[in-house]
Design the sequence.
DNA sequence: GTTATTGCAAATGATTTGCACAAGG
DNA sequence: CCTTGTGCAAATCATTTGCAATAAC
């Protein structure tokens, strides 16, 4: 959790008149410890490693707080569980490409997409607030070489590649 | 349900070796009776009006069938329930703008967005399969006039405007 | 006749919530 | 102190599933 994030957390605490508590701080910290997306359960597991008495309820409650405060964004990766993205503070308008072969998620930015979005939205009589572009794609490497490092890694870690329980 | 949709349904039935049943046909028919998005529960209600003995289970099962067969797409409108969009057969690459003031959803197409998506995706080493762009926006009419017909209508129908149970 | 399909009710699973106790300011 | 925050367990609620009965082909 860098200074910029720290500042946003502090501001959130202040603005909402919240109290500083150990469990909540542990969740804040863990959420921004890496730039990876995570589910509530994954974050819970991570928090528990250093803070064994934190409850799921607190994790969920703090997640809701961060989303409402604009620190975190919920993104739709086609999973049944909600996925949280901690990278919007650094890259406020980034998009996601999801590989349906290996499940890898690549973030990318492109100001042209935004410009067009703004234009279209304005033409329709609205004012764009935020946007999410998700591209589902297949892996060229896999198609041409018959193999892709991410797919191999995903299989090794037992990662579930397609949606639904 | 027009001929084109009918043909796709027939093809799905044939390709999967499914049987023609009354409950299932009722769901197919109702799903494409209008070009509006719907939730499973809404579709269930609509189906029940003409086919009072159809069960929720069949509605869910048929929805899954249509999604898998590419007739319907699940879209993320920020609701807790899954929303289904029957318009991808006619407009395979359309996008959604969601007004956070009144909840109205506007569909739009723009080939420039697609072109850029293709380019970016290719550059990243993937091949785009499908994409979803969701723009969350505020209503200019509401901001300047202090009122917007959709918001009034939404309030009248008791439509829930923001997410979560 | 077989096999797919259905409706029902029970199961599932992520998320939320009520409540009594603990901790922050 | 006086609230806000917490953990726990129970509640929710959309969706899925097992199963015996029913309908396709």
Sequence:
């Amino acid at each position: 959790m860098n200074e910029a994030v720290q500042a946003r957390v502090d501001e959130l605490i202040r603005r909402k008149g919240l109290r500083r508590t150990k469990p909540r701080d542990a969740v804040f910290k863990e959420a921004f410890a890496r730039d990876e997306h995570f589910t509530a359960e994954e974050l819970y597991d991570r928090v528990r490693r250093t803070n064994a008495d934190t409850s799921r309820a607190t994790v969920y409650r703090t997640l809701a707080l961060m989303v409402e405060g604009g620190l975190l964004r919920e993104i739709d990766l086609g999973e049944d569980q909600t996925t949280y993205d901690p990278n919007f503070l650094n890259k406020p308008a980034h998009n996601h490409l999801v590989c349906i072969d290996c499940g890898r998620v690549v973030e990318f930015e492109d100001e042209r997409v935004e410009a067009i979005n703004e234009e279209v939205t304005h033409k329709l009589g609205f004012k764009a607030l935020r946007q999410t572009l998700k591209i589902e794609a297949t892996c060229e490497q896999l198609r041409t070489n018959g193999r892709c490092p991410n797919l191999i890694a995903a299989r090794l870690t037992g990662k579930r590649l397609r949606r639904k329980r």
The two ends of chain B are 32 Å apart (CA to CA). Residues 19-22, 39-41, 56-57, 60-61, 64, 80-82, 165 of chain B lie near DNA strand D (CB under 10 Å from a C1'). The CA atoms of residues 80 and 165 of chain B lie 7 Å apart.
